[in-house]
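Q: I'm building a small set of examples for a reading group on sequence design. Run inverse folding on the following structure and report the sequence directly after it, with nothing in between.
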């Protein structure tokens, strides 16, 4: 595609098949209709996409939930349809700048933090993409040549990108994740790297650990702006009264600050916004206190790296509540990484039996529970005084909950239930 005119023409007034009727699929259908296209939506629990539908469509826009080898995508390609993801489709007609954010952990925090900084500076910025507000919806509601889209990009979205050309990319972190979708760790890395390669190397900001991962896997081609050496100042301290002072979040602050310095935004602005910033719900932040016990809600931690980072934050070993629906990855290595940073493990979900076996072999006390509430109560009864109980599951939530938000709310309800007088009496009698 050359130039905006050709790119817009690609999206205009042709039959468009939308695969997926979730949030991104519905937004893509609205956008295609607004452009004058004839639109039909297909979903595995609704209207099915077959040879007749493939012959009708000229363009197929797919939701991130469809893997590359899905039969519908193969059918569309074999029939001669152009197949692109929702993010690519929306980028064709977004008239302003796009700044992309990706990473195994921290991408939602960075997306929202950077958006708030830019807004405070007077830039019309919008957080969009994988955070639950598709770029297609932003095009309909906020499109302007002066607007900036801060777009969170998942590996599912990144792996198929063909058209998106972000002005900058911030890649927060890299660790095992989504290996139930990607064949191996290298394929997962390449999905992220497909986004990174779509911007100039001097506009690629790599978080701590990303370069190390690239080197360890032989991906020496990945180069980015060396902000860690180019932005050394005497005032490097992260504001203590901000959520970024917590260990797992410090790298996210440094990455955004580096980007803003390169962009010419003042450090004072970044620090002020950091002090006022609230992390996304169910992300490692301020704990709920019951007696002298601190309960940390990190339900958004859906991979091994996030869980290890959360548990490793404390000087004393934490009491860890975790488990859920497996997403691939080396479970034995994960349990070994937790061995030196957790005192006891309280396990839930379908991953619990396997983890219980691994912990037994390495000598980490562990117990499995039928429900999260039972795990919370057991940890509370056994933790003693001035302890940290960390709910950082490390797995997907869908075996027992609707999503990680539902899981996080369930954890908070269980903790708050401990504050009821009868619960306190039970604990004091057991002490």
């Amino acid at each position: 595609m050359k130039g905006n005119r050709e790119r817009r023409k690609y999206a205009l007034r042709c039959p468009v098949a939308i695969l997926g009727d979730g949030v991104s699929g519905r937004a893509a259908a609205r956008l295609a209709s607004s452009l004058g296209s004839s639109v039909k939506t297909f979903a595995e629990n609704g209207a099915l996409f077959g040879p007749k539908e493939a012959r009708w469509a000229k363009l197929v826009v797919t939701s991130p939930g469809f893997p590359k080898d899905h039969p519908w995508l193969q059918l569309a390609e074999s029939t001669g349809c152009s197949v692109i993801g929702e993010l690519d489709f929306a980028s064709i007609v977004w008239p302003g700048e796009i700044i992309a954010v990706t990473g195994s952990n921290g991408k939602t925090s960075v997306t929202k933090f950077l958006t708030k900084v830019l807004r405070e500076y007077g830039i019309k910025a919008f957080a969009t993409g994988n955070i639950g507000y598709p770029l297609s919806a932003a095009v309909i509601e906020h499109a302007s040549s002066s607007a900036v889209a801060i777009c969170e990009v998942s590996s599912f979205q990144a792996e198929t990108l063909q058209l998106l050309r972000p002005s900058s990319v911030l890649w927060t972190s890299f660790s095992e994740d989504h290996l139930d979708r990607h064949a191996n760790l290298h394929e997962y890395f390449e999905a992220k790297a497909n986004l990174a390669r779509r911007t100039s190397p001097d506009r690629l900001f790599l978080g701590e650990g990303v370069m190390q991962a690239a080197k360890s896997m032989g991906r020496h081609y990945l180069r980015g702006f060396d902000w860690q050496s180019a932005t050394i100042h005497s005032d490097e301290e992260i504001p203590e009264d901000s959520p970024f002072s917590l260990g797992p979040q410090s790298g996210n602050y440094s990455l955004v600050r580096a980007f803003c310095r390169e962009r010419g935004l003042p450090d004072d602005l970044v620090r002020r916004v950091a002090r006022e910033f609230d992390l996304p719900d169910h992300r490692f932040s301020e704990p709920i206190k019951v007696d002298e016990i601190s309960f940390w809600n990190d339900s958004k931690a859906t991979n091994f790296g996030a869980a290890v980072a959360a548990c490793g934050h404390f000087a004393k070993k934490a009491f860890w509540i975790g488990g859920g629906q497996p997403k691939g990855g080396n479970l034995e290595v994960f349990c070994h990484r937790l061995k030196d940073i957790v005192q006891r493990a309280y396990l839930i979900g379908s991953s619990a039996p396997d983890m219980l076996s691994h912990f037994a072999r390495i000598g980490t006390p562990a117990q499995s529970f039928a429900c999260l509430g039972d795990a919370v109560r057991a940890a509370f009864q056994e933790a003693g005084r001035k302890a940290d109980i960390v709910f950082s599951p490390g797995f997907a939530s869908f075996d027992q909950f609707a999503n990680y938000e539902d899981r996080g709310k369930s954890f908070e309800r269980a903790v708050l239930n401990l504050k009821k007088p009868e619960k306190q009496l039970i604990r004091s009698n057991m002490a």
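The chain has three domains: 3-88, 94-276, 288-430.
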